[in-house]
Amino acid sequence: MERLWNRNYCKVMAANFTLFFAFYVLTPLLPLYLSEHFGATKDVIGLVLSGYTITALLVRPFSGYVVDTFPRKTVLMIAFGAFAIFFAGYLAASTLLLFTIVRTLHGGPFGAVTTANATVAIDVLPSSRRTEGIGYYGLSNNLAMATAPTIGIWLYQLTNSFDFLFWLALIVACAGWIIDSTVKLKPKTAAAPGSAGPSRLSLDRFFLTRGWLLGVNMIAFGFSFGVLSNYLAIYGKEVMGITGGTGTYFMLCSVGLILSRLQGGKALRAGRVTHNAAEGMVISLIGYTLFILMPTLFAGNNIAIMTGYYGSALLIGLGNGHMWPAFQNMTINVARNNQRGTANSTILISWDIGMGLGILIGGIVAELLGYNAAFWTVVLINSTGVATYFLATRAFFLRRNLNPTVH
Question: Helix 340-369 crosses helix 96-124 at what angle (to 10 degrees)?
């Protein structure tokens, strides 16, 4: 069996972790920063933060095309460098308008670098271990999503300095750029002339139309995590009276992600991606429901509320750890070989749409009806995504799957 953990793959995974760590170390604290530093209201916070995701969304279709057309290493280095430099802009932004501009523009290189790095990861994987390797690659950004907020919140409580966190994000992102600069790729990574697939400029070079329903599903799950990751700290403080538990919440989320690899690794090795996807989304839905239901059912019972609060973190982490690599694998397996960049950008576009809608709608609902209503919206949207998968998406994937070893 070919070696999965080769040197280049490990480097790309490490760089991916730093990329998402730099992003998520700030995520749960930016609403507090905007509220305390600039006096922004809940709906304004939602608008400011959603700008990042909207820009990433606009850039992703073109980044997929660029990654499939030009030398991937060059594209990766330019995009990663721009992503890192933008963190310095947060330090320089002295007004809410300037911060909004920097934050919104920052989404551009984020959209490009995440697509490029994921595609390079596929290139350095042995073909016989690709399904399993994509699963572990997805775990690197899942772990960053879970651990970075914990560390960010802990450091903020320790230093009471947002500038310190901005500097940390800048340094970590630069470290990721350095790691990626040492990755060695074959001279030609784009599709060879005459290979199967569209050679002319078409919609399918920017968005994988063959996988559109998979993307619709990911929008629902991105929405859920968008609300959770951006409003958890404020929700815990204002609704549940939890001031120091957000870091622990994300730590338990990371534990769930690690357990998902131990539990779901065998299924991925066997190519059972639809099984992993189904298991993950159901577990996540139970977690989100538990999160919002426990304070309602057990008002005044702090032990029950805390059990539900922290238990939901473990379940959401476990569910996302199953679901994300499964959906990434499914999207790649309905794409042709010369559409790997497009496939990666498509799944990330869908996640971005969901995240952006979650941040925006979550802020508006919280302003009008409160954070409790915002998280009930999460349960509703997530349930819709789960129902869509079982009623339509699984069969949709199996009809279009180009890899007979994956099911």
Answer: 150
User: To which residue do tokens 């074959």 refer?
Assistant: 186
Angle at 230 between CA 228 and CA 234, to 5 degrees: 90
The angle formed by the CA atoms of residues 71, 77 and 82, to the nearest 5 degrees, is: 130
User: Residue with structure tokens 């992003």?
Assistant: 23
**320: nearest Cα among 225, 215, 213:** 225
DSSP state of 191: P
| Cα dist from 362 to 248, 256, 297, whole Å | 23, 25, 22
On whether the CB atoms of residues 26 and 52 are closer than 8 A, the answer is no
Per-residue pLDDT at 319 exceeds 70: yes
Is pTM beyond 0.85? Reply is no
Q: Please check whether residue 32 is in contact with residue 234, taking contact to mean a CB–CB distance below 8 angstroms.
A: yes
Spell out a b/e string for 233-255, using b for 16 or more CB atoms within 10 Å of the CB, else e: bbbbbebbebeebbbbbbbbbbb
Of 107, 169, 120, the C-alpha closest to 349 is 107
pLDDT computed for residue 190 by the predictor: 44
Query: Shortest CA distance to 351 belongs to which of 27, 17, 53?
Result: 53
- For the residues of 90-136, what is the DSSP string, one character each? HHH--SHHHHHHHHHHHHHHHHHHHHHHHHHHHHHS-GGGHHHHHHH
Q: Please tell me the distance from the alpha carbon of residue 92 to that of residue 112, in angstroms, as a whole number.
A: 23
**Residues 320, 123, 171, 100, CA torsion sign:** negative
- 184, 11 Cβ separation under 8 angstroms: no
- pLDDT tens column, 50-86: 888 789 888 888 888 888 888 889 999 999 999 999 9
Rounded to an integer, the average pLDDT of 146-163 is: 88
**pLDDT tens by residue, 355-372:** 888 988 998 898 899 888
Cα dist. 351→53, 258, 300, 332, 356 in Å? 9, 21, 36, 15, 8
The C-alpha atoms of residue 366 and residue 152 are separated, in whole angstroms, by: 24
The whole-angstrom distance between residue 403's C-alpha and the CA centroid of its chain comes to 25
247 contacts 149 by C-beta, under 8 angstroms: yes
* Structural contact between residues 11 and 177, judged by C-beta atoms closer than 8 angstroms: no
